[in-house]
Amino acid sequence: MSEERNLVGADPDLLFSLLPQYHRQRDAETGGALRALLAVLAEQLNLVEDDIARLYDNWFVETCQDWAVPYVGDLVGYRTLRGYEEAVAHGGEASRRLAARLAPRRDVADTVTNRRRKGTLPLLENVARTVADWPARAVEFHRLLAATQPVRLLPAEGTAVARRLAADRARYVDLRRGADLDLLGSPFDEAAHLPTAARIDGRRRVGRHSPPAVGVFVWRLLPHSLTRSPAYCIDRARNLFTFSILGNDVPLVTKPVPEPTASHIADVENVPAFIRRRAMADRLADYYGPGKSVEIWRDGEHHPVPLRDVVVADLSGWRYRPRGNQVAVDPVLGRIAFSSRSAPKHGVWVTYHHAFSADMGGGEYARERATPRDAVRYRVGPGEANDRITQAYQRWRADQKAGRAGATAVIEITHSGAYQEQIDFVLARGEYLEVRAAEGARPVIRLLDWYSNRPDALNVRGVDRPQETEQGQEQGQEQAQSQIQGQGQGQGQGNDPEADCRSRVSQVVLDGLLVAGRGVNVCGPLGKVVLRHCTLVPGWSLEPECAPLHPEEPSLVLENTTACVQIEHSVLGTILVIADEVTADPLPIHIADSILDATGPRREALSGPDCRHAHAELFIHRSTVLGEVHTHAVRIGENSLFTGLLHVARRGVGCLRFCSVPTNSRTPRRYRCQPDEVFAALRERAASGELDPAELPGLLVVAEQRVRPRFTSTRYGTPGYGQLAEGVAPEIARGAEDGAEMGAFHDLFQPQREDNLRARLEEYLPAGMDAGIVHVS
Fold it and tell me: Which of 22, 96, 272, 647 has the fewest beta carbons under 10 Å from its own?
């Protein structure tokens, strides 16, 4: 879109300056009423001029304003989905993103071109990418149906081509072709199948292999990269590693490459598909190497392990033993095994891709960030002036003492390495510290067992006097003697949270980090603590099957602090609030577009000590809470999922809107929440005589089970973590205020994307065919 004129900077005295000097002087003597009147007229004149200047831009779909998109599309017969006008009229960033999903500009621009290609499979794949932003592969199922050739059509002495066509029509599954068997049921399945009676677009029962069926397989999980990140060495085995630094199994996915031509049918390398062992073994050069899906370095070498030394194997149970210089890779489990004779002595680093639903938590994905104007930046990483985070923090303190730095600092970590340090940040009144990942990096802070007689968390402490920070700095220098240099050598959008922050004495921002091994401790007088695009691993670390290692330990402890906590686009475990409920006000905690995971449905995701009510006021928007919440009050909760009990001390404060909460919860007043809406509909039908009142209790129990949120996975570290399961009740999948799904992935607008895709498929399908959308991930 073209950049609009800034009306704030327009001259309000434009008309007044055109008057003769005599009138301007007389107006100044009488109080300036004429000047004020002409300023109002000038403002309206600027609006008219700006609108005229935008007329030319509004002729084109690439540069027009949002409100003009459906009008431009109407010229070529483009049909927008319901809700577009309401989204544009509502305004706001969230509504703008929704409008972009309902009527993508690229889809409007390609309308005429797509109609010329109507009925082709590559077009259906292209429509899925432009309309829903999902990689896709289109399959005509009638080509995969097994059929017996009639005897009268079999050529007695026909040509070889005719005999081959007849045999192809009557083909069976070839059990000797293991590569084909490995693809059974996948989008790349080419084996023969018997026909099914159910249609692919059926409402009650969905079938695939029917003569008029066309399936559009879509990948909803995004590929997330990790570049030259440290691998994890399994305990007591110096030759066994996992790709994930947390030690859990993680299935690897393909790094998609663009399709060569517009008429190309998507292949496995064009989509973020999970890598299969046989496929990688047969086409290792397509998956391994520079710029590919997987790379492995050992012992700090500049070149990766040669392709000739890499073998693909099943490392389940670690039974496979490589020989010589071989390096065994299991893409399904994300494991690496070296020969015991050639085990690495100085570490292993890996580049790989894993799948997740959205850009959330620590990751190398692009994100918007703003650096304070007066901040001094300290870079940490290989080739930088600082090797450790604590070293950069201590340098800031030294520069402050020497007068070279002020009260604002940014520590930027430039590499996706692991930093094993004991970190203590002490901030005085008015100071601002931001620790963030550089663009394209996902650093990991591993908090280990440094001391036997005290906790080893990442500590953030606020103090009233600057002199106290020097004492904290001296303690940090003593602790730094035993610290290990990081393994990087090879290497909100709801209500404004600031309006509720009572104290702004100091601020700490953590951005783009993954914290494992321990949690984060916050104490003392602080103004605001921000966790943005961070992961505080639920349960501190993971077992191989992604079970939490310490499921009952908190990820964030707020102890006797005044901080306003703001959590955005993050994943974290339990929040524990320790406060004096008599003398202190409740802490404001703002959570937006995040997952709060207690690692169990009956564990506390937010509470005080001993499962008491947390002395906090919760503001939660578009988030998923896996566990129970016990808090003083919920000021506002909207478009969120609560899988466990929600219990507040003050019911008369705040409200819940378009949320899902268990029926036995104690909450503030609720509006359009589930299962309340379903219960109200059943009671209304019973009152009207449509249902037997005696059957109502049983129906309420069934309805509660039906609308309960279900997920693909609730274990952090798995690809489908926090994703709503297939077949979840539409009251949940479309229960948000704008028709999107409730929970942390609300802003993906997946229901609207799917509706838009179905509408376009009907428009571009071959005549007489039925289309269905199949979710691969």
Answer: 22
